[in-house]
């Protein structure tokens, strides 16, 4: 892969199509538990305020 040069448009990344499913799976594998932890912490904060 060449570096981007001034005045040239970047090429389409058709070479990485085989990596997209893996990348999406890895992203969502880490994103879902993090989101669940955030939701649980927000709920616990709300419950502490109401007590």
TrEMBL record:
Protein's name according to its UniProt entry: Uncharacterized protein
């Amino acid at each position: 892969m060449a570096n981007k040069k001034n005045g040239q448009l970047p090429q389409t990344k058709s070479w990485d199509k085989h990596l997209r499913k893996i990348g999406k799976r890895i992203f969502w594998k880490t994103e879902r538990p993090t989101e669940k932890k955030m939701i649980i912490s927000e709920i616990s904060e709300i419950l502490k305020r109401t007590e």
